[in-house]
Design a protein that fits this description.
Elements lengths: L1 H29 L4 H24 L10 H29 L1 H27 L2
Helix pairs in contact: 1-2, 1-4, 2-3, 3-4
Membrane topology: Multi-pass membrane protein
Main location: membrane
Family: Belongs to the GtrA family.
Length: 127
């Protein structure tokens, strides 16, 4: 039951993160920022929201919040690795197809990485 509850919350939080990440990414790159820093900024905004919501709701134990500096350190390390992979994939879409297709590819890239992120967050960060 815990896995189903966590999966449901993670999905909702992830959709909110994806929306925020994508909106920031499109806005800053439309204003002329290069794709690589634009992707990192979008993911950083979503990361802060996701750490708080996932720690407070998704992976909380019976009302006990799962936040703190120790978890935040593990979270940042995992986030950096996934952000690097995301950035490589979004930048490749930009190089091969152009900025507008990178905007379209971004939600697909992030959606594909969400499952991996859930498993790693559950095992390495919010354990």
């Amino acid at each position: 039951m815990t896995l189903l509850r966590q999966g449901g919350y993670y999905l909702v939080v992830g959709l909110l993160q994806l929306l925020l990440d994508w909106c920031v990414f499109v806005a800053v790159t439309a204003l002329g920022m290069p794709v690589v820093p634009g992707n990192v900024i979008g993911r950083a905004c979503a990361m802060l929201l996701g750490f708080w919501l996932n720690g407070r709701y998704t992976f909380a134990d019976a009302g006990r919040q799962r936040l703190g500096w120790k978890r935040f350190g593990r979270f940042i390390a995992l986030w950096a690795a996934i952000t690097a992979l995301s950035t490589v994939l979004v930048a490749a879409a930009d190089q091969a197809l152009g900025l507008r297709y990178a905007w379209l590819a971004k939600p697909l890239v992030e959606g594909g990485l969400a499952g991996l992120s859930f498993l790693l967050m559950r095992r390495l960060v919010f354990r």
